[in-house]
User: Fold this.
Amino acid sequence: MFRSLLTAAAFFAVGIGLAGCAGATEATGSAREDGRWEAEGPAFLILENGDLRGSDGCNGILGSYTVTDGRVEVTRGASTLRACPDVDTWLRGLSSAIIDGDTMTVLDGDGATIGTLTRTA
Assistant:
C-alpha cells in the first residue's frame, strides 16, 4: 500500500512539474515576432520580449508591443522628431503589424498597409 501511495505521489509531482514547464513555455511563447526586422533602405525595428526599438532612417522609435490573435499591437513611446530631407519616414505611422513567416506587414492606425519589413535576425 505504501509503495502504491509513493508511486502515485511521484507521478503527481512529475505531472505538476511538467504542467509548470508547459505553462512557462506557453507564457513566453516561441517569440516568433522577436528579432531584427529591416526594410529596403535604412528603416528597421527590433522586437524583444515586449520592447520595441528602431529607426525610420532618421528618427529613433521606442515603444512596447503585445501580440493578440496573431497581430502585433504597438504602443508608441518616445521618439525623436528631426527633420530629415530625402528620408521616407513611413515607419513613424506604425500602429500594428501582421507577421507571416519572415515578413512583417506594417499597418497604420486605420489598418492600412504602409510598408513591409523582413526578418534579418
Summary: The beta strands are 35-38, 44-48, 51-55, 60-68, 71-79, 96-100, 103-107, 113-119. The longest helix spans residues 2-28. The helical segments are 2-28. The radius of gyration is 21 Å.
